[in-house]
Design brief:
By secondary structure, the chain is an alpha/beta fold.
Length: 563
């Protein structure tokens, strides 16, 4: 401890006290500075930390002169156990008030920095994610501002889901990029990124050193970019042209994607890929149950997948004379819509295997006049299952390829129609969820951009269903979510309520501000005004000091490559 900056006076509570500031040369205290005091019982073995929460000036007038004294009101953070420095250094709750007249000192930069690099139990964080700096900088013992590095624990991030919330244009993708750099660049932790607008194309392409302004050589030494980046996109040629203009960094593996019908070995995969809403998903689930009950022998005999079997059943319902199918309960109008959707899939993403195509060609239907007007004769031929077309690349949406150690997978769906984006993402998430549940892929972080598209409470889709399964079971399976959210009040309540960590940026919408205040009452309370680059973080289990914590995020090392 250096020279004291004040002494406690007046009423002292267990968790709160005030002190008169002693004017010192070059030292001007400010709100959020951290001060330290000796414990009244254990002295230096248990230094007590407190944060200045308010500063006021008090005028004192006597018969001879007038003076102004500055009063600092402080909130007690806790006491630090320094008895066994070779072991943990935890912060404990203070259960007794401090003594009036006690000296108050500024906490040393090195002491607070050491605490910031420890977990909630006081042990050094094993795998640190350097996110940025505490905001504002603390006043140092020499009066100069001192920047303190803020770290997330990888274990903390992996044991709970995270919501990254901000209005558009204020840095959600930027913060997510920093996390990706830390996770993949330092620890080879697997990431799968659902990229709706090609925002993450630059992952793995570092800036030249001349472009990095605020990070030191010491801070840059851990970013080796020795991980692999795999990009799935509808336009591989365009993506490669952009990436090849920038040298350095990891080698990109850029591929188009498609789905062989033979890979659809689970009827639920077909339902996620086809249904545009929960009603249709439930219809297809009912149809799949019927197929499982009635066509098990066909699967064995003809070696066909669920795709042609479900197609054939829909065609049977369409051509039937009944308004509602007696076996499945599906109405003819719904079957026509679903059959058309499967036709579109077959002409865009789904590649029929030879066995499946032969099965459909040999499946004959007769149509009545009314259906001929609407669809045309020969339902399966007419809807285009056998049109001559250029085939997309072979199917490669396999979990064991999509999630690997030392790999970031970017699933770029920017070129897809809006109604197909949620379906292909639902399908992929279901496959990844199944594979992780079976232990076929390593534990990983699933990052979903534009989460409102997949988890809206206003337009509930099958993507909501699979995200609910992931938020309920994912953590214990080793599958952790990070959702990038613009409008938190629009997100499905059962999904957003399971976000353990909240990283909150600039928000102006009154409905969203009120929602966050209500949703996280007692943790964030009133959301303070934040500048661009500043974020409020709460819900951390492995953070030693008080929460929420305000952080100014660091500069990214990744280049911005989006054209």
């Amino acid at each position: 401890m250096e020279e004291h900056v004040g002494r406690i006076f007046g009423e002292v509570k267990v968790d709160e006290f005030s002190f008169f500031i002693v004017p010192l040369k070059n030292i001007i205290l400010k709100n959020l500075d951290i001060v330290v005091l000796e414990d009244p019982i254990f002295k230096g073995l248990f230094p007590i930390l407190a944060r200045i929460v308010n500063l006021t000036n008090q005028e004192e007038v006597t018969t001879s002169e007038k003076a102004t004294r500055t009063i600092a009101r402080c909130k007690v953070i806790g006491k630090v156990d320094l008895r066994f420095p070779e072991k943990a250094t935890p912060i404990e709750k203070v259960n007794y008030p401090l003594e009036p007249g006690s000296y108050v000192y500024l906490a040393k930069h090195e002491f607070i920095q050491d605490l910031l690099e420890r977990d909630g139990k006081g042990y050094p964080i094993k795998r640190k994610l350097f996110l940025g700096f505490l905001s504002p900088p603390l006043t140092g013992v020499d009066g100069s501002p001192r920047k303190l590095k803020f770290y997330l624990s990888l274990e903390d991030l992996a044991r709970q889901h995270t919501a990254l919330i901000s209005m558009t244009g204020f840095g959600k993708t930027y913060v997510a990029t920093i996390l990706a750099e830390e996770l993949a660049g330092k620890y080879g932790y697997p990431l799968f990124i659902v990229d709706t607008y090609s925002e993450f194309l630059g992952i793995g392409k570092p800036k030249p050193l001349s472009m990095i302004e605020s990070l030191s050589e010491d801070e840059l030494k851990d970013f080796k970019f020795n991980f692999k980046v795999k990009v799935y996109t509808l336009n591989p040629k365009n993506a490669l042209e952009i990436l090849n203009k920038v040298g350095g960094g990891v080698d990109y593996d850029v591929e188009g994607f498609s789905i062989p019908s033979s890979s659809l070995v689970d009827g639920e995969e077909v339902a996620y890929l086809t249904a545009e809403n929960v009603k249709e998903f439930n219809m297809l689930t009912s149809l799949i149950n019927h197929v499982n009950f009635t066509h098990a022998d066909i699967v064995k005999k003809f070696n066909v997948s669920y795709f042609p079997l479900i197609t054939a059943e829909l065609a049977r319902i369409v051509e039937g004379v009944e308004f509602r199918d007696i076996y499945t309960g599906l109405e003819k109008a719904d079957a026509i819509a679903l059959l058309g959707r499967m036709s579109m899939l077959c002409n865009s993403l789904v590649l029929l295997s030879k066995e499946d195509e032969d099965f459909l060609k040999n499946y004959r239907f007769s149509v009545d006049d009314e259906l001929e007007k609407g669809i045309g004769s020969g339902v399966l031929l007419r809807i285009g299952f056998f049109q001559e077309k250029l085939k997309p690349p072979p199917g490669n949406l396999k979990p064991e390829l999509m999630v690997k150690d030392n790999q970031v997978s970017v699933f770029d769906i920017s070129g897809l129609p809006e109604n197909l984006k949620t379906r292909i993402v639902s399908y992929c998430l279901y496959k990844l969820y199944k594979a992780r549940a079976k232990g076929e892929i390593p534990q990983f972080l699933l990052m979903v951009e534009n989460a409102e598209m997949f988890a809206s409470k206003f337009d509930v889709k099958p993507s909501n269903l699979i995200l609910k399964r992931i938020v309920n079971d994912g953590v214990k399976l080793g599958l952790t979510l990070l959702l990038l959210i613009q409008y938190p009040s629009a997100i499905d309540q059962k999904i957003i309520s399971q976000m353990g960590i909240r990283v909150i940026g600039k928000i102006l919408d009154k409905e969203d501000l009120e929602y966050l205040k209500h949703q996280f009452k007692g943790e964030t309370g009133k959301i303070p005004k934040l500048k661009k680059g500043e974020w409020l973080i709460d819900g951390l289990q492995d953070y030693l000091l008080e929460q929420p914590v305000k952080v100014t995020v660091r500069e990214t090392v990744t280049q911005k490559l989006k054209p």
